[in-house]
Amino acid sequence: MEDMEIKEENESVIDEKPVDINKIGSLKSLGPFIAAHENSQNTVYLSDVPAICKEQPCMLGVDEAGRGPVLGPMVYGISYCPLESKSVLVELGCADSKQLTEEKRDIIFNDLNTLEYANSCIGWAVEIISPNVISSSMYRRTKCSLNEISMDSAMGLIQHAIDAGVNIAEVYVDTVGPPEKYQEKLLKRFPNFKITVAKKADSTYPIVSAASICAKVTRDHALKVWQFPEGLLIKDNAFGSGYPGDPVTKRFLTEHIDLVFGFPRLVRFSWSTAENALADKAFEMEFDEPDSEKPKYAGTKLTKFFKGTTKTGEVKREECRFFKQCHLDNVTDF
Amino acid sequence: MSITLDFDVKQLANKRQLELHYLPAKINGDGECANVDKYFNNYTREASDYGTGVLTNALRGYPLLGKREAVPKGYKGVVLQETDPHQAQRQLRLTGTFEEFTYWNYDKVPSKGDGYQQAMTMLQVAEALAAPIGEAELEEELKRQQQAKKENL
């Protein structure tokens, strides 16, 4: 089934007019778009902005997909439409995306992009946040939490929409954490919008459902078309849901450990599931973290001058400060 | 106990060049590291935001910033290997040589302040210590010291 689809796509590339790989015009072009972009970096995609969204005041929804899994990217999505076009969202079937099956979400995503009554008034954008970037951010010397990564992505996407000319009036954001702080931060950055941050906004506001569907469908496809620069070939990319409890994911994690490098970069190294698996099965690795060393503030002891010799009577010599600072030391063993 | 470097100096010129990474981590393991290209080199990128020649990558999720580094002028990098370090007569064999390597820091742009760069001061110290000193230079130095003493009084 999967193979057939790919073949069909290839054929259409050959005999139709050249397909723009940088454009997502339907569900079919989503996979090829994702596959054409490096999966170790973040990728942002913005749909065309419908003309009406530049004129009329719009509402904009923000949601994310793939926050919890130990595998694959986290995807942030936004969607927007004029305030008065809310009925279009309902007609499309934008409701709580977790209540929708994968198939239904795919259909809605395709309709959203291909049907004239929808794509003439709804626009959307996603950011695919690479697992490689997630790990690296969370393991920085000054740790950047997943919440910060999330907020930065959400605000980045809203900014993209503003820059593209979308006339935003209201913003609705789904959150898992405490809404107050998030709302405050968003208002500070975008003081002119009416901003609502709420738990389960996904099921309350259709515009958030639409954003959620874009994010979820993108995440699902990102996993399907994932190509391992590590050269791994996994049949049908079957590595499970990515949730630590999933036995298929668990098996993937235990079976694909490189003793030195750990996992392929599909895996979020900063997840405790991944950390624990490596602690058990891979070579132990210690990073230089001189910054975390505690400075010693105790001054020189007064008795220092009476302690020139050690117990055996020989004089103990301090290392020369110059060499110490240069990280140089005497070595007798080689 | 003795250590023998068991190779012909001629080998230095025609031994294969090695691709090396100086990592900011201690790996407690021994053995061949076969997947460097696929798991690591594949992901090295130029990061011009940090300056020219600065590279990025990550090791087990830890962000790395690196730079291509040449072996100091007049020196040659060699990799030696020994099978059994517990023998009284130790033998080290030549695995390969290198003129360049990639130096990596953990989330810090490589700079003169890095431990590695600092330790390279040893080369200058060694040169200064080993440089021959003539009679004239010695007298010059003595004069200078006497002069300094006078000034301090």
Automatic annotation (TrEMBL), chain A:
GO BP annotations listed: DNA replication, removal of RNA primer; mismatch repair
PANTHER family (UniProt xref): RIBONUCLEASE H2 SUBUNIT A
InterPro entries membership: RNase_H2_suA (IPR004649), RNase_HII/HIII (IPR001352), RNase_HII/HIII_dom (IPR024567), RNase_HII_hlx-loop-hlx_cap_dom (IPR023160), RNaseH-like_sf (IPR012337), RNaseH_sf (IPR036397)
Protein name per its UniProtKB record: Ribonuclease
Superkingdom of origin: Eukaryota
EC number from the UniProt entry: 3.1.26.4
Cofactor: Mg(2+); Mn(2+)
Binding annotation for a divalent metal cation: D63, E64, D174
GO CC aspect terms: ribonuclease H2 complex
Recorded GO MF terms: metal ion binding; RNA binding; RNA-DNA hybrid ribonuclease activity
Cofactor mode of binding and number, as noted: Manganese or magnesium. Binds 1 divalent metal ion per monomer in the absence of substrate. May bind a second metal ion after substrate binding.
Main function: Endonuclease that specifically degrades the RNA of RNA-DNA hybrids. Catalytic subunit of RNase HII, an endonuclease that specifically degrades the RNA of RNA:DNA hybrids. Participates in DNA replication, possibly by mediating the removal of lagging-strand Okazaki fragment RNA primers during DNA replication. Mediates the excision of single ribonucleotides from DNA:RNA duplexes.
Domain called RNase H type-2: residue spans: 57-283
Family stated for the protein in its record: Belongs to the RNase HII family. Eukaryotic subfamily.
Reactions mediated catalytically: Endonucleolytic cleavage to 5'-phosphomonoester
UniProt keyword Hydrolase, yes or no: yes
Top class in the EC scheme: hydrolase
Sorted UniProt keywords: Endonuclease, Hydrolase, Metal-binding, Nuclease
UniProtKB/TrEMBL annotation, chain B:
Gene Ontology biological-process annotations: RNA catabolic process
Gene Ontology cellular component annotations, sorted alphabetically: ribonuclease H2 complex
CDD domains: RNase_H2-C
Endpoints of the signal sequence: none
UniProt protein name: GH21812
Organism annotation: Drosophila grimshawi
Gene field: Dgri\GH21812
